[in-house]
Amino acid sequence: MLYPWQTEQWRSLSLQHEQQRLPHAIILSGVNGLGQLSLANKIVAKVLCEQSVTSAPCGLCHNCQVFAAGNHPDHSFVAPDESGKQIKIEQIRELKQKHTLTTNIAKWKTAIIWPAENMNISASNSLLKLLEEPQSNTLLILISVKPQLLPITIRSRCQKISLTVPTNKQAIEWIEEQEGKTYKEIEIKQALSLANGAPIEALSLLSSDSLKFLEQIAKDFNAVLGGVANPVILSQQWQKYDLSIVLHYLQLKLKQRLIKNIKNSSNSIVPNDWAIYDCIINTTKLLSSSHNLNKALLIEQFMVESMNSISSNSTFGRNN
Fold first, then answer.
1. Partner of 266 for a Cys bridge, out of 91, 118, 162, 261, CB 3.0 to 4.6 A?
2. pTM to 2 decimal places
């Protein structure tokens, strides 16, 4: 499936393939929820297809049918054994071994690594050797929402393709066109804000009713700042939530409060507001920098630092 905001990247890569200028390795990036895997699959399908020299994959030839079934012998999909875990060196070694062999039914060998930033150091070093000595007619697509975490030695050997978020108007229109439940525009805008403008992620938030827990998050955080909640107990309860969404939500709420108070020249702006904001930013950075975090400990630490940064007259959400 090709999404409307992927058209430019698809045309560029298709043209490179048709002109026999397709790079052997691509880093496909962008915020989560833009359909990077869908685009990567379409590119791979075009490369493997027997009929798509100057068109989209036909979907009818043997290569297309085998790839659609998920068991094409010349394609590899490398991902962590469990969500959030690392991609291990054994997985990359298996990929390298497969790429040393001749093709089975297609003219190309392809692979998708997702999420690429989850490769551990040994896996990254092993992949580097494959990138340094690529076989002919091979295509590696590394999907990453955090390409900055990839070693520079890998990034420098790949063509970088970045998906950008559509305009708010385009995103709202796309969500409204999807079948199923209809949503109020204010709900869609809130979901898009939390999803960094990514329509697929926003739709996922809406369809799973994930936004409903945010009201409870605000109440919990107020209780923490008021000193009437136990951070240890509350951190255990928060583990069931997507921590990146929680932090982004708290950041947006506090940002709205600060902007409103500045516009109103309110005296209620205190240094504590900025201290809490810093706690949110620092925790978000920690969340983005490691794959083996103790989630409960991170949440507890965030709550304690937020409590220590406030005074008795500062309450999250006041003046919103």
1. 261
2. 0.86
